[in-house]
Amino acid sequence: MTKSITIIYAYRNRDVARVKATLVSLQMQTQQNFHVVFVDYGSEGSYAQKVQKVVSGFVFATYYYVAHTGLLWNKSKALNYGIHKTTTPYVFLADVDVVFHPSLTAVMQQLITPMGFYLFTIAYLPKEINTKEAEQFPIENCKPTHIGNTFGIGLFPLEALQKVEGLDTFFHFYGSEDADLNARLQEAGYFLKYHKPLLIQHLWHPRYPFKKDSQIMVQPRLTNVQRINQRHYLRNREKGIIKPSRRDRMGNVISKEESDFLQKPTKIIKIYNILSHVEHFLGEELPSYTGEIIKVEFLEDPYFQTLKYKLKKLLGKQTQLYCSIKEVNDMVLKEIVFNYRDANYSFEISENLKSIIFCVRMN
Description:
Blueprint: E1 5-11, H1 16-27, E2 34-41, H2 45-56, E3 61-66, H3 75-84, E4 90-93, E5 98-100, H4 104-111, E6 116-124, H5 131-134, E7 146-157, H6 158-163, H7 177-187, E8 191-202, H8 225-238, H9 256-260, E9 267-272, H10 275-285, E10 293-299, H11 307-314, H12 325-340, E11 344-349, E12 355-361
Parallel strand pairs: 1-2, 1-4, 2-3, 6-8, 9-10
Antiparallel strand pairs: 4-7, 5-8, 6-7, 10-12, 11-12
Helix pairs in contact: 1-2, 7-8, 10-12
């Protein structure tokens, strides 16, 4: 059968059992009119090996590994890479947390149109339903916690996605990239319709803990990123933007060979958490290193934790202004999001949360 639909997954460091469950539900489809493009965007090696083995066990699926673990999570870049690899006229953007009714792809075959795109109704399963049980659709005697519409799981013409140049890669971590894509497609003249019959079930997982964005953790988090993403989405809507601005070629990712360059820095710098030093380096010094591969370690000044410093600060005596490692984290992450998101970079927080290593190849 000619494949008319490519189903794209974006993945990173997730439970492999979920991947198996969603692919098993595709294996059970009554119409095998699809191909799966599975994009692993920067998983750690232990996850990558396991998920590649699972994906490779399904004849309809192809696994792609973006082998650069130091990149920030960017769902838009992962999906755009999948779109770039697509050769079918239609695309279904999926999620590793969902399982499908056996008739999904047959229904999609009836819905496809070059004039618009479809989002779907989705049922959210309770916590006690495990991945094995979720492979059976519908699950007997199981009441969903709630039912709603999807924002990012949908059926799109490939030509439409190419016309708007895919998802906007400004969006990092989580939030607004799906709504932004839908709005730009409509701005470009494509209609949006909702398919109401229930064909998708969502496995339970903890909600993204936005409240932890204000804490320093080994996993990178940026304070207020949800609002920053929301502001970008609203700006795009206000200006009627169709194609994202300020970004690299759609579908471009950093290769393993390119990422290996970061292991051979041409300049190594250490900067203590003195506010003026951090601000000056990021705003003035770093942009001047044209053509260099920079490795900078931000770390706590030993003086920062001394009784002498704390007493001087308490007494209001003049001293250098310091910033916490979390504040350094946020300053560096904002630089990546706003200025270096398309560069070859890596970002790593130490296990003891006392230092940050940022590497970047400057153009």
